[in-house]
Structure formats: C-alpha cells, structure tokens
Amino acid sequence: MHTASDSRGRHLRWPTRGISFGGDYNPEQWPEAVWQRDVELMREACVDFVTVGVFSWARLQPTPETWDFGWLDRVLDLLHDGGVRVDLATATASPPPWLTAAHPEVRPVDERGYRYEIGSRQTWSPSSPIYRDHSLTLVEKMAVRYGGHPALALWHVSNELGCHNSRCYSPDSARAFRRWLQRRYGDLTELNRAWGTTFWSQHYSAWDEVVPPAASTTFGNPTHLLDWRRFCSDALLDQYLAEREVLRRITPDVPVTTNFMVGMGSPQSLAGDMNYAQWAPEQDLVSTDHYLVGPATGDGAAHHRLSFSADLTRGIAGSQPWLLMEHSTSAVNWQPVNRAKTPGEMLRNSLAHVARGADGVAFFQFRASQAGAEKFHSALVPHAGTDSARWREVVQLGAVLRRLEPVAGSRVEAPVGILFDWESQWACEQDGHPSRLMQPMTIAEQMHRAFAGVTCDVVPPDADLGRYSVLVVPAMYLCSDEEADRISAAARAGAQVLVTAFSGIADRDDHVRLGGYPGAFGDLLGVRTEEFFPLGADETVALDDGTTARVWTEYLTVAEDVDVLARHTEGHLQGVPAVTRRPVGDGAAWYLATVPDMRGLERLAETICATAGLDLHAGQHSDVEIVRRQGENGSWLFVLNHTNEKVTVDVSGTDLVTERVVDGPLTLEPGNCAVIREDSAGTGAPTRKADA
Ligand code: GLA
C-alpha cells in the first residue's frame, strides 16, 4: 500500500492497494441473504473499498435504551473475508426520529424561524448540545466495538457535513454564534468596529442583542453576514473535530476523513457553505463527492467543472493523493431530469478524477435501493441486476483501475496556480455590491478553462505560491495585507501574476481599501480606478484586440511603466485600458479590468503562458483533457476525449484502458479515453494532431 502524509504529518497507509474502488454499501436495506452475493459481486468487479453505515443510526440504536450491532458485526466480517476494506461511518449523519421527537430543539431552524420537521435526513443543528452528546456516545460505541476490526481502514465522520443543515438560526445557534464572536473579537467595541455598526444605527451595547442574521427588513450588515458564514462553517467543523477527538482517543492509528462536496455549491453559494480550505488540514486524507455530470445535465461545460473541482480538491489537499468518495455510475436522482449516463461516460468521469490526483474512485451506492428517497439514483448494481450494460461497465472500470495500481501515490505537477478564496465568494454573494454578476468562483472556473491547455492547481491564498510560473488571482475581493504581499512577492520572484477585476477591494473585515481600486493590488499592477461601470447581463463591449467582453468595465488609469495590451473601442470608455502588464522584479503583474468571452480569455492565457515559457497549445485542446501523473515508478498520461469527434494525440507507451501498445498517433473515438503508461518519463507535452 502506498502512503501519503496525514493531518499530523505522519505516514498514512492508503486504505487499499493501488487505486481504491467501491462505494457506499448499505446492506441494512437488504435481507441478509443478499449480503453474501454482494461480496461475491464486489470481488467480480474488483471492488476493494466500501463505506458502511452512513445512515444506520436508527438501526444501530433503535430506541434510546437499545443498541443493535449484531448485523453490522456480520457485515464487517463478511467484507473482511471477501478482502474488502471498510471506510466505517460514525453513523451520526441522521439522528433517529426518537431523538428529534423527544428533543425538538435538535432540529435546525431556518432564517424565518421555522423549525424543520422529522421526515428527511441530517435534521440536526450543529450547535445543539443534545445532538452533540448523543452523537458522541454513538461515535464512542462505534470506535470501541470496531476499532480493532481487521476490515477497518478509515473512519468516515458523518456525511457531507453541511449538505442540508449548514445554517441554523435556533436559540442554541444564537448562543454558539455569540461565543464564536466573543472569541474572535474579545469585546463589543472591537465587534462594533469590525462590523462598521455606526452605519444604519446598528451599534451593539450588550452581547444578547447580537443574533444570527435571520430574515429582516432589507440588506444585512456585510461583516455580520460574513462572520455568520464563517461561524456556520466552523460550527460543523467543530462537530467533525469532536467526533475525530473520540476516534483518535480510542483508535489513534486509524485515519479519519469526512466527505466534502468540493465545487458542488449549495442553494446559498456557488462555492458551498463550508470553507474546505480550512477543513482540509484537519483530514488525514481529503475525500470529496462530485455529482456534476456530463451530458445528462445537458451542460457541455460539466467536464470543465469536474476538472476544476478535482484541481481544487488537490489544491486544498496540498497536492497529496485524495479520494473521490462518491460520484454516480449513472443517473443522479436529485436532478430535475434524471437521465442515465451514456456508454463510456462513467469511465471517463472516473478517470478524470484519477488524472487529477484521486487515488480512489467510489460511488453512491453499491446496490440501487428499492425504496426510499433515492431509489432512482444509480448504483454499481442497478435495478436491472447484473445482466445489464451498467454492471458490465462497472466490471470494466474495476479492471481498468486494477491495471492503474502503480499510478497510486504519483503526483500531478501544475505550472499554473489559480487562487480560490471561499470568503471572497461568500462576500460577493451579498447584496449591495457593484454587480451580482461578478462572482469569484465563476471567474476562477473561466480562468481554469482558459488555461486548460496546461495543468492548473486551484489553491487557497495561503498555499505555497512560489512554485507557479503563472499565478491567477480571480476576483479575490477580500485580501489581507499579508496575502497581497505574498502575491506581489511571487511576481517579483519571476511569476506572471494575472489579477482580475474586483480583486483586493476590501480587507478581511470587508472594509473597503481607500485611495482607489484595486486597493491591495494598485501598487503591484500600477493601475488605479475611481469608479466601476459594470455591465448588464446582455451588454458587451469591444476591445481593440478583437475581444468581446462582458460583466465589468472600469475607468482605469495606468502608471508610466505599464504596458497597455488592450483598450476599449467604444462608448464613454473609448481608449481606456482594459488589459495591462507591468514588469515587476523577475516577473510581471497583469491586470484584466473586464471579463472577456472564452475566446478572449484563451488568447490572454496563450500570451501569458508564452511569456512564462509554457506552451498552452502543445498540451491540450480544452475539450480533450490531457493530464500527466508522475511518480517514482513512472509516468502516466491521461487522455480523455470529451468531444463528439475522433481526436488523435501523439503518445508513446501502453494504453492501460485497452492494453494496447501505442507508439505515435493514438486515435480516440468520441467520448473515449486512454491512460498511457509512458515508456520514458514524460516531460514534453503531447500534441493533439488534426482531427481524424
Ligand atoms: C450525496 C450523499 C449520498 C447520496 C448521494 C446521491 O452525495 O452523500 O448519501 O444522497 O448524494 O445523491
């Protein structure tokens, strides 16, 4: 088994050999007679890793006084006998009805004061002391009973923390929010300063006046709202840490994770409600779920979003291997139109994650449910049974992943870093900003797509920035002095730093930096803006390099040592710079004062890459994904054809998907993929030749 570093810097033995393969296994939904058959099927498909018990609290503790572990004992024994490693859930994700009926205050309250009813899942408030007590009792029971079980490879705390209960406005939450604020600010004077409460007569004179920002007359106080988002993320992180503490006390050597939803967003936020950059260092291995799927969504950009999310997952994992804890073999029941995946799509999705650093590929769930809310969600074993195309594709995927065993532990090297900052995203989702259309996550995704011809890391602002030839700062609205200094230092040290509009505008208290925009980056970029002129949803502007731009314009003035690369051609901004570059130390600082269309962004990316000595085109076409993983044992080139046409790529080695030797042009049919074990350690970028 390969190793990675866990959250304590220790060597972590990966849960399985090679690339882990499996999914959520929910045997409690089935009679015991099915379990033996399930394990046989797992062996047939090379499944070696399953997550057990995620939603089994009500089964494990059917009444407050009774516990029933016998069935789970038998499941774990069966799995162990079948050679399947277990990611055992702490089972705290959904409290049983007896708990939330006896203690309604456990259930979360929405921003209009409505307390959620029993009948769905994850119906608990992160700040409820009663939930905390009961959940930790369960964790302790699980750890004591199964800590020594030979099948146990990993602890799975709760499930997608924050998926349904990320904001709770209950009295318990109000008390916890005040305690959080007291730790952050010490006293009310500091809170009043940070929140700017002189505006709109919001000065607080006693802590009890401070409440969660529930529904009110109009816009809330921006820093109050931002602190609420920070608190909500921390409140759930606190539940994770409390469970982890119990697990570590009883089973110090078993690694602990909880499954993130990186890049999945939430009803309230494009980036989701948990600041995973802060959560990731607390995981022994980072795991995530991804359900944005391809043609089933009718969204041609889905594979770009998948690769963005995967690169962000690797970014927050500090480039360590990570685990794809859940995706779908086919249909995803919560989509409004729930279509099956097309032939080959599951393999392509799975390999896209592996290409970008996943050392495990797992799904929700092993056997499709007959009953319950997700009965139309796909599974490894579909409703149709094993005499089905889906099962045959699952078996094929297992065989391919088995052949990829040596890839495990290898790394993805990325010359381009794209910063992503959860807090800037949350702040830009508030009312009262220059434009609702200016969203850091959207800009970051567009940048990732523009630079798709080279591999990008998507990293938080506190990452090691010194390793990138190109560093992109997409609408990083909130920025501390220290962060701005580190970004400037990267430019001085030789990086091409591209800052986009609406970056560096406010400090981490969300107070605007005075003296002209873009505040924190004005000196680095040598540019200054006094007022913004954002565009309506249908408006465009033309630049003199042929680019069409949207969303944003500003009246930009530039210092003498700044090169203007593109100017506005029309209207009141005619002649005003829109794209600039300033030499800085051994590198340069580029400013993009608008949002070009995709073609314009790609051209800018080409220019910047050329300056940095990177060949954007040689690597990839944006719909032919080419990513290399490299390790001590070799290098592997992942080539995924997301287009509807045949493509040809020059490669040399053995394709581990088809087990064919390739030396020269490799033609991939539409939707097909290859993983080339390269004959000599690859460094050069392969060329995508003409379409066949
Ligand atoms: C999430 C959850 C699973 C299941 C899947 C499928 O990822 O963790 O329990 O609901 O979605 O939709």
UniProtKB/TrEMBL annotation:
Pfam families linked: Glyco_hydro_42 (PF02449), Glyco_hydro_42C (PF08533), Glyco_hydro_42M (PF08532)
Record field: catalytic activity: Hydrolysis of terminal non-reducing beta-D-galactose residues in beta-D-galactosides
Entry EC no(s): 3.2.1.23
Domain Beta-galactosidase trimerisation: 414-614
Chain sites annotated for binding substrate: R121, N159, W334
Residue sites binding Zn(2+) per the record: C168
Keywords: Glycosidase, Hydrolase, Metal-binding, Zinc
UniProt GO BP: galactose metabolic process
InterPro entries hit by this protein: Beta_galactosidase_C, Beta_galactosidase_Trimer, Class_I_gatase-like, GH, Glyco_hydro_42, Glyco_hydro_42_N, Glyco_hydro_b
Molecular functions (GO terms): beta-galactosidase activity; metal ion binding
SUPFAM superfamilies: (Trans)glycosidases, Class I glutamine amidotransferase-like
Domain Beta-galactosidase C-terminal: 623-678
Gene Ontology CC terms, in alphabetical order: beta-galactosidase complex
Active site: E160, E326
Family according to the record: Belongs to the glycosyl hydrolase 42 family.
PANTHER family in UniProt: BETA-GALACTOSIDASE GANA
Name assigned to this protein: Beta-galactosidase
Species name: Rhodococcus koreensis
